[in-house]
Design goal:
Blueprint: H1 2-17, H2 23-26, E1 30-33, E2 40-45, E3 56-61, E4 69-70, H3 78-92, H4 100-111, H5 116-120, E5 124-131, E6 138-139, E7 147-148, E8 185-187, E9 193-198, E10 209-214, E11 229-233, E12 239-241, E13 246-255, E14 259-267, E15 273-281, E16 288-295, E17 300-309, E18 313-324, H6 335-342, E19 348-351, H7 355-358, E20 381-383, E21 388-390, H8 396-405, E22 409-414, H9 430-444, H10 450-457, E23 468-471, H11 481-495, E24 500-503, E25 518-525, H12 527-532, E26 546-554, H13 564-579, E27 584-589, E28 593-595, E29 606-608, E30 613-615, H14 617-623, E31 632-633, E32 636-640, E33 646-654, E34 660-668, E35 674-681, E36 688-698, E37 718-721, E38 728-733, E39 737-747
Parallel strand pairs: 5-35, 7-19, 19-22, 22-23, 23-24, 24-25, 25-26, 26-27, 28-29
Antiparallel strand pairs: 1-2, 1-4, 2-3, 5-32, 6-31, 8-11, 9-10, 10-18, 11-17, 12-17, 13-16, 13-18, 14-15, 14-17, 20-21, 29-30, 31-33, 33-34, 34-39, 35-38, 36-37, 36-39
């Protein structure tokens, strides 16, 4: 470990304990074999500074070596050093005012293999020259960074959309009867209950209903089991029911006799009742809507909804829904997942796909008209690309509402008559064109228009701010795409000349052969490849349509289920997009969400289950770029000693108080630390200066480290105050790290109070 290690320990001691002394006399790490059990004592001794009760700390460690060695000896393995210091830090925490994250960052720097260059003196050197005069830079589009939502991995159904019941209309098994009612299950056996499906629903668009014939009773002759018989729904791998919260249960019921139904949330085995209510009605011979509000008395993250009875007879059920009352603004979005989106500050949201829009076959493609209106009347559909049923509670209207709630511009992707396996000839595509025009009228039309009336009836009489549409998804290579595209383009421009139309064809390397306002660019590749693509748009023509990088991510073995390495490569790529934001209008990561119970794609930005959620490192990288949209990209030159593993950029942005900051971002994609000399020019020496604000680092012990439900913050940004900021600075970039520096640009004549709370950054 050598003196590099020693200096770090001593520096840490000074900060922690206020002690400054010669290393050799202040700290003496060693281990000693004991004679009794063949183990050894790990010992830290402080010989000049005596913290109360901390003059000596010992950690018992099993070990079979026959003699003692100094800590720096080659036989004292990396594993022993790591365990040794880990114990020391855990004991020292009680005496140190530093946060746990800083302590563990020190542990990583000092002991983990990727950072050994810090101790070995192999640091690389680089210089970043920044011209801070905003007139020399270029404005970044207000729309540069946003999000892309696709119904994949149960992102919506069983995710952002807070509906707890899966297959609420019993339609997932198909329109033919009898049909599968999965995941609904039966409570009771065949001697007490018979469950089937028929086509007796009162809803014309989804005719399947569930028929439940109860053979037992509360009478002694054929007694029902305790608690009755019936059906239950486990939701999407368990319903999250929390004590003190209220849930609205709605269902439709019909019976020729009086009913006495218990509606309850229970544990997964039905033994623990979390909330319950009885519904008694004497006349339900016609379909009748029932509503009940259940308040949970206990918490269970793996619950189910039960409908049970002990009354003999036949009961029909349809359209069973259970929703928590505490969704975002009552709009149906799960609060924690919504907030994670809001924290990215997305400038746009592209929806609803992706391949979800196309379908493997057109008959299973997402069609917006089937997803609006009362939820009970939506037929739902089987998404045959990602292979699961959606009730389409999260429909076209809800996506537009989501965009509005996020203060983001909606980007609607619609089907252009093409799926993965079949396509409509251009001569027959007119009905699809009309469907798109009707969708635009639904979003933007007057509340008295044909489709504006439908929107208004759903609670939004004012038009939505829909400015962008994409004609299809990844269809450029299909035989009929160009012909179909031109039909859509001409019709939409005639009706809505201000609408920006996005083509599926890549125009980054050669001009498009058809008109477009933007073109789609998708990239999924390895970490090394994506990092090297930071210059992808350097030589793109500055004339013609702009690029919409609507899907990007590192995939494959580099990515795992969300690695630091993948995130750093993506950060480098995004720095390249910032630099080329004169030709790149928008960019979004993909996919956005994954329910951990149904991983159809790896990696993803946000991982969740019924009650937990965390961001992968790729999510946290996006948080570094929240202030970039609408900022000014500053001219900066990076000078390195032949390193190809370093990228850096600088922007000028304003917080909500109108204060201007210079944000410097640097990605060290290599395994060596880098001494970066930062030189900021272009400031008026008589009127402008820089002062410290914040430094934020995203790194970890190893490049393949990931977050998880067990360690959701293993790889997250660590933010500290940045002191002594100036036009000339020397900073250390850790191996495999993303670091940002926010420098307050202020007037020399004004004294601005140093207050980190003034920095309204979202990291």
């Amino acid at each position: 470990m050598g003196m590099g290690f020693g200096r770090k320990v001593n520096t840490w001691l000074v900060r922690c304990f206020g002690v400054a002394s010669n290393l050799s006399s202040s700290i003496n790490p060693y281990y000693t074999r004991t004679a009794t059990d063949g183990g050894h004592d790990d010992v830290w001794k402080f010989q000049k500074y005596k913290a109360p009760g901390f003059a000596e700390v010992k950690a018992r460690q099993p070990h079979s070596l026959k003699q003692s060695f100094p800590l720096t000896h080659k036989l004292y393995s990396q594993q022993h050093r790591r365990a040794h210091l880990g114990f020391f830090l855990s004991q020292a925490m009680g005496y140190c005012k530093l946060s746990c994250s800083v302590l563990f960052l020190f542990l990583f720097i000092s002991f983990c293999p990727p950072y050994q260059s810090l101790a070995d003196g192999k640091d690389l050197a680089a210089k970043l020259l920044i011209d801070a005069s905003e007139r020399s830079g270029h404005p970044i589009p207000q729309t540069l960074f946003g999000i892309f939502f696709e119904e994949i991995n149960h992102a919506g159904a069983g995710g952002l959309w807070a509906e707890l019941v899966s297959n609420r209309g019993f339609e997932a098994g198909g329109s033919n009867i009898p049909s599968n009612i999965d995941p609904w299950s039966i409570i009771g056996n065949e001697s007490s209950i018979i469950v089937s499906t028929d086509r007796s629903s009162c809803f014309e668009s989804n005719k399947v209903a569930l028929r439940m014939e109860v053979l037992c009773t509360s009478e002694a002759t054929s007694t029902c089991p305790s608690g009755g018989v019936g059906i239950y729904n486990p939701g999407f791998w368990g319903m999250n029911i929390e004590q003190g919260k209220s849930y609205k249960v709605v269902f439709y019921v019909r019976s020729m006799e009086a009913i006495d139904i218990s509606v309850s949330f229970t544990s997964s085995n039905g033994l623990q009742t979390l909330a319950s209510a009885n519904i008694i009605a004497s006349d339900v011979s016609n379909w009748t809507k029932m509503e009940v509000l259940l308040e949970a008395k206990e918490t269970n993250h793996n619950s189910r909804l039960q409908l049970t009875t002990s009354k003999m007879g036949v009961i029909w059920f349809d359209q069973v829904s259970a929703m928590p009352l505490d969704t975002y603004k009552g709009h149906g979005f799960r609060n924690d997942l919504f907030q994670m989106l809001a924290d990215i500050k997305p400038q746009f949201i592209r929806f609803p796909g992706g391949c979800f829009v196309e379908g493997e076959w057109l008959r299973n493609a997402f069609r917006w008209k089937a997803s609006v209106g009362p939820w009970e009347e939506r037929p739902g559909h089987f998404g045959d690309v990602w292979m699961y049923w959606t009730d389409d509670g999260l429909g076209y209207f809800e996506f537009l509402q989501l965009a509005e709630d996020l203060s983001a511009l909606p980007i609607w992707v619609f089907n252009n008559g093409i799926s993965h396996n079949d396509q409509v000839d251009t001569s027959s595509v007119r009905p699809f064109v009309q469907e798109a025009l009707d969708g635009l009228e639904f979003a933007r039309g007057d509340s008295n228009s044909r489709w504006g009336v439908v929107r208004a009836a759903m609670g939004h009489p004012e038009p939505f701010d829909l400015r962008y549409v994409a004609v299809g998804n990844e269809d450029c290579g299909k035989k009929n795409y160009r012909g179909n595209y031109l039909k859509f383009y001409d019709a939409i421009k005639r009706a809505y000349p201000d609408i920006q139309i996005i083509s599926n064809c890549d125009g980054s390397s050669r001009p498009l052969d058809h008109p477009a306002d933007l073109y789609d660019f998708h990239v999924y590749t390895s970490a090394n490849n994506l990092f090297s693509m930071s210059n992808k748009f350097d030589h793109t023509s500055r004339q013609g349509p702009k690029a919409f990088v609507s899907e990007y991510a590192v995939t494959g073995k580099d990515a795992g289920t969300g690695s630091l390495l993948a995130a750093l490569a993506e950060a480098g790529f995004l720095i390249g997009l910032e630099k080329n934001s004169d030709v790149v209008q928008m960019a979004s990561y993909a996919p956005l969400f994954v329910n951990s119970n149904d991983r159809r794609w790896n990696p993803d930005a946000i991982v969740f289950n019924s009650y937990q959620a965390y961001g992968t490192p790729s999510y946290w990288v996006q948080r570094f770029f929240t202030e970039s949209s609408g900022a000014t990209f500053l001219n900066a030159t990076l000078q390195t000693d032949s390193s190809t593993s370093l990228l850096a950029s600088a922007i000028a942005w304003k917080n909500s108080n109108g204060q201007t900051y210079i944000r410097i971002k640097a990605v060290n994609f290599g395994s060596n630390s880098v001494n970066l000399q930062i030189s900021v020019g272009g400031l008026d020496p008589n009127s402008e200066k820089l002062s410290g604000s914040a430094k934020t680092i995203l790194t970890s012990a190893g490049p393949m480290d990931e977050n998880s439900f067990y360690e959701p913050k293993k790889v997250v940004p660590i933010k500290t105050l940045l002191e002594n900021a100036d036009k000339e600075m020397s900073v250390l970039l850790l191996p495999h790290s993303l670091t940002s520096f926010d420098l307050l640009k202020e007037s020399v004549s004004l004294r601005v109070a140093e207050d980190d709370s003034s920095l309204k950054s979202s990291i």
